[in-house]
Amino acid sequence: TCEMTYTLGIDIGTTSSKVVVVNENNELFCPQIITSHSYANEADIVGVAQYKEQSVGKILSSLDRCMVGVKGHLGGNVERVHRIAICGQMHGCVLWEDCDITNTSNLVTWQDARCNEEFISSLPKSKHRISSEGFGCATLFWLSRNTPNVLDKYDCCGTISDYVVTMLCGGKPIMTSHNAYSWGYFDCDSGKWERETLTTGDFPTQLLPHVVTPGSIGGHLTQDWYGVKRDTPVLAAMGDLQCSVRSCDIGVTEAVINVSTSAQISKVSILLYKRVKNVILTASVTSLPYFDRHELLTSASLNGGAVFAAYVTMMTSWTRQFAPDVTVDDVYARIINADEAETEMRFLPALFGERHDPHLRAALNNIGHCDVTIGSIGRAICRGIVQNLRDMFGVCGDDVTRIYVCGGAFNRNQLLRHEAAIVFSDKDLCFDKNCDAAYGATMVDVTS
To answer: Where does this protein have coiled-coil stretches (predicted)?
Structure first.
């Protein structure tokens, strides 16, 4: 019999890091998860309101805790890991020094809002994707114009998952087209950065990583890592959204909804890069690079679980004016367990605007005299989050017959699950599919 081999998958998210190990030598069609470990990053740095930064050290600490759990579970069998696949949040940017990789900037996350509309309008126009706040290239433009001394300290950059690959393997950073396109100013047809366009705006192009196709080997471990052997290949970091969808192994009439901090609805298009540009998409639908030169049609909302969390935080603050000992968990449980009747109240969840329309704002409409309860408003917010995704996706969802529903928000919030079933009552909704980015990363075929 052949020796059992494992693949280790890593997902470095906004709120947590996760590591899974799968057994590739089983009789099932899909790899089997042997062990899974997840820990909160707790890495947010409090500062200027518009700035959303995280501590790289704290993110790495949560990853280390995951790996300690893996080694503790597998023991000597961790040596059977023959490949590492990494994915993570795509738009964020971290800088580091090539000769001392521990010398890093903070991670500027996808939620960062320092690049306001006026600043974005001053940037060179990309031929392939409208730039937006929180995008890596926009952040680097901002740093070069406002704090050039910061850029002088570093000579490498990438997403947080690109950084982890470089930390493990050494060498210069490598980035997949998933992450490069999410940064902006990247041409999927040629697989190259829009360097000429960037240069017109005095962009520090020398920092940009070399770009490879998803599934490419990013390097090999330079030393043993929690029992995983030196020289184990590590894939170049992929996008967490693409890996989440990959984990569902969907067909052409299927889609995936993922609601965590933000929210997305996606389906795979069989069109190739060179043909997708002929497809007319609305402003709220983006065509992202996927795998095997296919496209991922996606509506990505900035308003997911963070909107419901903001409501819980607000209600907790109000309640503490009268009952100082109440906890966030108390309020959360009261909202999602409230037994409220059907309501005509409607909620537009654009608390954080949308990338395709930054001026959008949240609104609660059609409020009746029976609607002013903590539970009814919570229910309206949950329905609004899901309805907003359906509205953004528009006609792209017309031929979808089945939707796989996943994400941390659905795992914790049964009210959100209930409202999703109502909004998509004409579709077959599946809540028990293992839609998991770390798991999906392990399913990606090596291309080089």
So the answer is: none
Look at residue 385 and tell me whether its pLDDT is greater than 60.
yes
pLDDT at position 440 is 93
The full DSSP string for 154-192 is -SEEE-HHHHHHHHHH-SS-EEEHHHHHHHSSEETTTTE
Q: Locate tokens 């919570």: which residue?
A: 378
What's the CATH code of the domain at 112? 3.30.420.40
Cα 400 to Cα 1: distance, rounded to the nearest angstrom: 42
In the chain, count H helices and then E strands: 15, 25
pLDDT digit string (tens) for 131-143? Answer: 888 999 999 999 9
The CB-side HSE value for 435 (13 A sphere, CA atoms) comes to 28
Mean pLDDT of 226-232: 97
Residue finishing a domain among 209, 236, 263: 236
Q: What is the pLDDT of residues 166-184, one digit of tens each?
A: 999 999 999 999 999 999 9
Does residue 118 belong to any structural domain of this protein?
yes
Say how far apart CA 130 and CA 397 lie, in whole Å.
Answer: 23
Give me the DSSP letters along 179-233: HHHHHSSEETTTTEE-HHHHHTTT--GGGPPEEE-TT-EEEE-SS-BTTBPTT-E
Number of domains in the chain: 2
Kindly state whether residues 86 and 184 are assigned to the same domain.
yes
pLDDT beyond 50 at 272: no
163 close to 157: Cβ distance less than 8 angstroms:
no
The pLDDT of residue 271 is above 70: no
- Whether residue 33 has pLDDT greater than 90: no
Phi, psi of 229 (to 5 degrees): -70, 145
pLDDT band at 277 (very low <50, low <70, confident <90, very high): very low
CB proximity list for 201: less than 8 A, separation 6 or greater: 123, 124, 141
Longest dimension (CA), the chain: 70
- The pTM of the full predicted model, rounded to 2 decimals, is 0.88
Whether 101 and 186 map to the same domain: the answer is yes
* Same domain flag for 188 and 46: yes
Provide the residue range defining the domain that includes 63.
6-236
Closest-CA residue to 87 (of 297, 266, 241, 295)? 241
CA distance 136 to 261: 19
Where does the pLDDT of residue 30 fall: very low under 50, low under 70, confident under 90, or very high at 90 and above? Answer: low
- The distance of Cα 177 from the centroid of its chain, to the nearest Å, equals 15
Half-sphere exposure of 391 (CA within 13 A, CB side): 12
State the pLDDT at residue 433: 80
- Distance between CA atoms of 78 and 275, rounded to whole angstroms? 44
